[in-house]
SWIM-type domain-containing protein (Amphibalanus amphitrite), 472 residues
Amino acid sequence: MFQVVEELYEAGVKKPLQLNSALLNRGISGHSMKQLNNFLTRLKTKVQGPATISYLELEEWCSQHSIQPEEDDCAYVVHHDVSPTSGVHVIMSTKRLLANAAQSEVVHLDATYKLTWNGFPVIIAGVSDQARQFFPVVFGVMQAETSEEYGLLLNKMKTAVEEVSGKTFEPRIVVADCADAITTAISQVFPEAKRGHCWFHVKKAAETHLRRESKDMQAICKADIANLQLCYCQDQFDMAAQLALNKWRQLWPDSGFPAYFEDQYVARYGGWFEGFDLRAPSTNNGLESLNGSIKTNHTLRERLPVGRFVVAAQSMIRDWSRDLTGRRQFQDTPIADLAVMTKAHQYLQQEKVVVQVGEDSFFVRSGEELTLSNEQVDAYVQMVEGNPQSFDEFVDHRFSMWRVQDTGNRTEAMAMWCTCPEGLKKFVCKHSLAIGSLFGLIDFSDVARAMPVGRKRKRGRPTLARPALEHQ
Ligand SMILES: [Zn+2]
């Protein structure tokens, strides 16, 4: 059998399952998958050579590339410590990537989508901007995924960003998966930063745990968790989470899921709802898709010899850096693109009633309903920000109207945030733009220019319907 496996392997059949079916096709059976896997591991080592690297070789290369270059996009080694006793630590970046990071208050780091090189974890940390674009900052080949190693990476990133930009680098929030090693590292390097938990990971983990439950329960819990994720402040999340747990415990008294969810995603890892930080992405999707593309493009293959690996890494980091000179610029305010501007323009023409409460809060009905009374707004505030009796009652009210909050004293539309799902996730929506336009903060002339040709339009700027603004 082993002779046949070797032949198949050389012919390009390299995956255990493919190999197994090829063997069965040839009438060879009686082996277990475990035997096949073990043999495959030995075969790989024989074919590719042992996965060893020379510390001396790597250390020399790092030393040669440790001097900060003149050129902004030239990748260099920000920090390294390579020896048989301390292990492998190589952290690289460019001046442009580091200077870019200084503009951000949102850091992303992840341990889930693993890239490795000769068994060493490759860890990328980056930042995001107000247009929710992700920008890599440092590329690290580290010894292990421990709190010390993450701490070292974050610490060297902080020092390098500060050195290049001349400003202190104190992020407001660090978003990562739920790994405790990362939490410890963050609290040591950025003690003031909030610890955000990637919503995508929480969702996946909850779904996996729910698989043992009935289809009914799965569907209800998934929907409830998605609604919980749209809470827009901490008090609301605390209250709504307890209501959801009560609901589940009543419906399924024998299930272990409520206890699991409460322990994990309410008590320990609670930083995954939108209101945890209204101006930071709630997922690490930008970072993960970068990791994914590195993996699928085989830019950095697992067993590249050290010389080729560092050269490949260097050119990849240079490309990230050059990206910043083109269309991918750092945005410090959310971007209202033509699509959302058009929606806002159409929304205004519906002449929905806007109820103003106090100086800075504006309420509109969701859905088709145009009217809205002060009593309805009162009931909403009571329910959603006060004391609902059940989770379902909370959800019904929560999504019955949207609240636009002005945090900028009528100075800019982008300082208005809205509680609708799009507003929370994209930082800008038709409601915040429409309210902004009531105060002259939005100019719709581009929308008018982009209207389909042939539709009759008055000359000059279109006039805007002004929704009734009711003071309470
Ligand atoms: Zn909105």
In short: The mean pLDDT is 89.
